[in-house]
Structure formats: C-alpha cells, structure tokens
Design goal:
TIM Barrel, alpha/beta, eight-stranded parallel β-barrel, two-stranded antiparallel ribbon, 342 residues
Length: 342
C-alpha cells in the first residue's frame, strides 16, 4: 500500500455524495464569527481568499457563529466567486431574535460580538423555513447547498428535529431550494438514529471521529457507508488537543480541561508520530479521511498562516507503518486506517 497523504504539491482531492462534489478539506467559518477573539473584516476576507487559492471549495457556517457575523462575512467573501464552483452549508435550529437592550453586553456563548440578538432553539417547520430565509439574506445568495439541523442534542430537541425539522428540510430539497440535508451534532448515536429514520444526504460528526475519539467507528460510519450517506468530519483536533505537536498541560477537550488520562494518551500518539517522522496534527488531519464514509473534513481556521498550515498537514505523506503502530498499541481501532490510502 502506498503512503497516505496526497503529496506536498498535490491539489485537494474531491469526493462525491448524492450529486455533490466536495473537496476533502472544507473551511469551517466559526472563527469568522469572532470565536474566542476578535477577527477583523480584513483578516476574515484574507482567510477566505487563502482558502480559495488553496483549492478549498467547501465552506461551512451557521447563524450561531457570531450571531450571524460568520454568515455575513462568508457571504461577502464568496460573493464574486462562481456560484457553481463551491459548496456552501449552513445550519438551522437557532433562530436569532433581536435583543437591542443587551447590545451593550458581549455574547456569552464564546463569540466576541455584541449580544444584540439572542438564540432561540427551534426545530419546527416554521422555524426551519424562517431560519433558511434569514440565512439567505445574511449570506447574500439565492441558494444554499447543504443545510444541517444544528445540535439537537437534548431528547426533546431531537424528537422534533428528527421528525418535523428534517421533514421540512426534505421538503425544501424536493422543491430544489436546497441540494442536500442532514444534521450536525457532537454525539454519534443520534446521528446514526437520524440516518435510520430519515432520507438524509450527509451528517456532520463533530469530534467523535478523530485520531483520539472513536465513538463513531462501530455504528455511525458503517451505517452511513451502507446507506450512501456522507460523513463530514468536524472537530478533528478535539478542541485543540490535537492541534499542536504536543498538547499543553492545560489543553482542553470538548471545551473543558482535558483529563490527565486523555493527555497521556495524546502524548503516546505524539510519540509514535514523531518516531515515524510526522507530527500529531498531520495525523489528526488525515485520520478521518482514511474512512471511506467520510467525504470531507471541515476545519476551522483564522488567517492566511493557518490556511497554509492546514494544507501542509493534509499533504504530508504519512507512512502506513504509523497507522499500524497506532493500531498495535490500541490507540486507534484495528481496522483504521489500515487501508492507508485515500
């Protein structure tokens, strides 16, 4: 088997699912909504430009990201691009209701923006339709390619999202308003249940199919592959734990302080990566793409340097011997990614 990784100068590979063609890497635009720190309009524009020049043609956003700021910036950055040459996704489930009385405060969900709107969880048919209408206006476009139900994690939310919400999205797909529908969640089990219940095209699995977390391996990935449903892997660095050659002692996992046992496991993976001449982020970037069910890895980046770093990680050849060593050590499932190639 050849070494994984397409080579240092190779263009981004493209994968197809349900009539869509997606580059293996996608730009996650949460950072464009001022996630954790302020990002200037100029830096946001430069990020989109750099991603486009690198060949990235999948762009993912959501109303949640910066209370609409990410959608507005992404729409502005893509406005002059040929519309048929990229895949645009956003999400429904968090309506933005104006709250001008709180505009002097900062948003309390991780985004450095004024709290001039509040998020209202709504997975009803009317909520879905309104959310898409609002997103189209913020994005400044006449169509969205993929729409995901966003984080219907609680049982009562999932009950409505997996019936009324997904039904509304399927209706819009049949009308040609959107091209593909699905859900994005932080847990693998409800995504698998949604695939069993509804005719979805893609699901976005955040953090549960990564070099460190294999919760999607036994059920979600094979089910999606058998049903022809594409998996979009997000959170591939597990809240930053896998984003550096060695994790910091105060690294976070699922946005909370990482347990010592998880830090030790990450360092064991890093040891083997170094022995095989690659870095932990190189392996973390490529691991999700080794599974045939995965059609794209969406990664959040901010700035030209981070785009360049992402492409380097994607293109670095990784020896099959590393995957074998990780499997032998019980650090990844035995079957992945022994295929070794993409």
């Amino acid at each position: 088997m050849r070494e994984a990784g397409p080579g240092r100068d190779a263009p981004l590979a493209v994968r197809a699912v349900r009539g869509l063609r997606l580059t293996e890497l996608g730009l996650g635009a949460a950072q464009l909504g001022n996630l954790y720190r302020n990002t200037s309009d100029a830096e946001a524009e430069a990020t989109i430009d750099a991603a486009w020049e690198a060949g990235i043609r999948v762009f993912d956003t959501a109303p949640h990201y910066g209370l609409g700021l990410s959608e507005r910036r992404l729409g502005a950055g893509l406005r002059e691009r040929p519309r048929d040459h990229y895949v645009l996704s956003t999400k429904v489930g968090r309506l933005l209701e104006p709250s001008p009385e709180r505009a002097h405060l900062q948003d309390d969900e991780g985004f450095v923006v004024p709290a001039a709107a509040r998020r209202v969880r709504d997975y009803s048919r009317d909520g879905v339709l309104r959310s898409i209408e609002d997103s189209l206006a913020r994005l400044g476009t006449d169509r969205i390619d993929i729409v995901y139900l966003h984080d219907p994690d609680e049982p009562e939310m999932f009950a409505q999202a997996s019936s009324e919400g997904i039904g509304a999205l399927i209706e819009l797909r049949e009308q040609g308003v959107v091209r593909a529908v699905g859900a994005g969640m932080n847990a693998a089990e409800p995504l698998a249940e949604l695939i069993r219940r509804a005719d979805v095209d893609l699901v976005m699995c955040a953090g549960r199919h990564s070099l460190l977390d294999h919760a999607a391996t036994d059920e979600l990935l094979p089910l999606a592959h058998d049903r022809g449903v594409g998996i979009v892997a997000a959170g591939v660095y597990n809240s930053g734990l896998l984003s550096r050659p060695r994790p910091d002692a105060d690294a976070r996992y699922d946005y909370l302080p990482a347990p010592q046992e998880l830090l030790a496991r990450t360092n064991r993976i890093a040891d083997l990566c170094e022995e095989h001449g690659v870095t932990l982020p190189d392996a973390a970037t490529q691991f999700p793409l080794a599974n045939p069910a995965v059609v794209c890895a969406v990664v959040g980046v901010r700035g030209v340097d981070q785009v360049a770093s992402l492409l380097t990680r994607y293109r670095t050849p990784i020896p099959d011997a590393l995957w074998a060593a990780l499997a032998d050590a019980g650090l990844i499932p035995p079957s992945s990614p022994a295929k070794g190639s993409r």
